[in-house]
Design a protein that fits this description.
binds flavin mononucleotide, alpha/beta, Nitroreductase-like, 9 helices, five-stranded mixed β-sheet, about 325 residues, NADH Oxidase, Nitroreductase/BluB, 2 domains
Length: about 325
């Protein structure tokens, strides 16, 4: 193969792309490779009809896969040109990524690429160790670099406002039979399945009533553990709320998660209030000064969990010669 042929780098980058986080591990992506171009597409059959009827979280998940793809190509010394939402007639085509020659990777780009395979969602308790200011700034800068913002909920008042809306959202979802049926369908104890959240990934039940309630996956192990007293909670926000904003938010979330992983930090999500339009609106009024909440992360130090399954690259990729 000639040394400028990008096929090998693209193949490696697709393996990185599918390691992205996705809501309920739905992996709502498809890739089409045409020579040096990779098309990143939304798989509409994998959008959650109850939790995510507009496909916003699916687009965030695809944005995370897009970031992994870009980062892996850069680490392989490839220059990339990204065209987001290139065809208004095909909104499921979220972006094209074109390999455009060679450009050496920086050490920071290589660190990010190394973090792709080490990142997992960590729903277990974190240790009570404060995330230092330098790491907080690096997380904020990561989201900024992708055209979104990371709002740190670092005052007791902000945390309490969020906790109140989170409790309300979580209770509603627990009481909603349709939501629960969808969650059950995507929670799995079947080791042969390549998608869904394995019940073991749900983490232990909290002892007592924690300030911030993680999503309760069915079949969660019954062991009870104390959760950290002072978690770092950070919200990815965008100025608008279009498909392009969702794609940006997904890339920003993923860049922040990779920076966190490189710094030895774990993260999990609190999406419950963002999944409900009235509570999402309340977050805008109470916390974000009108910016649109896209994802909420709980960040801290803890022991990393096992990786969750993925559909093989061959199952989600087609190759075209035309
Ligand atoms: C947009 C988005 C929202 C998510 N929301 C939640 C959530 O509310 N609670 C949760 O425990 N995990 C949430 N997750 C994490 C996924 O369940 C997780 O990424 C998936 O199961 C794959 O596992 P991994 O992240 O360990 O690779 C979310 C992920 C994404 C991308």
């Amino acid at each position: 193969m000639d040394s400028d042929d990008p096929r090998e780098a693209i193949d490696h980058a697709l393996h990185a792309a599918v390691r992205a986080p996705s809501v309920h591990n739905t992996q709502p992506w498809r890739f089409v490779v045409r020579g040096p171009v990779v098309e990143v597409c939304l798989d509409g059959d994998r959008v959650l009809t109850v939790a995510d009827p507009d496909g916003r979280e699916a687009r965030l998940s695809c944005g995370a896969a897009l970031l992994n793809l870009r980062v892996a190509l850069r680490a392989a010394g490839r220059a990339v040109v990204v065209d987001p939402l290139p065809d208004p007639a095909h909104p499921e085509l979220l972006a094209t990524v074109r390999v455009a020659g060679r450009r050496p990777a920086t050490p920071a780009e290589r660190d990010l690429a190394d973090a792709v395979g080490n990142r997992t969602t960590n729903r277990r308790p974190f240790v009570d160790r404060i995330v230092p200011g330098s790491e907080r700034s690096a997380l904020v800068a990561a989201a900024d670099a992708e055209g979104a913002h990371l709002l740190l909920l670092d005052t007791p008042r902000a945390l309490e406002t969020f906790a109140t809306l989170l409790r309300r959202a979580d209770q509603r979802q627990e009481d909603d039979p349709d939501y629960q049926a969808e969650l059950r369908a995507w929670t799995t104890g079947d080791p042969a399945r390549h998608d869904g959240v394995p019940s073991a990934a749900g983490g232990p039940r909290p002892a007592g009533t924690p300030l911030l309630k993680l999503r309760d996956y069915p079949g969660r192990r019954t062991a009870e553990r104390e959760f950290e007293q002072d978690p770092l909670v950070a919200m990815v926000t965008t100025a608008g709320d279009t498909a392009l904003d969702h794609l940006r938010a997904g890339q920003a979330m993923q860049r922040a998660l990779l920076v966190a992983t490189s710094a030895g930090l774990g993260a999990s999500f609190f999406s419950q209030p963002i999944e409900q339009p009235d509570l999402r609106a309340a977050l805008r009024t109470g916390l974000t000064a009108g910016a649109h909440p896209q994802a909420v992360l709980r960040i801290g130090y803890g022991h990393r969990g096992a990786p969750t399954p993925r559909r093989p690259v061959a199952e989600v990729t087609s190759y075209r010669t035309e």
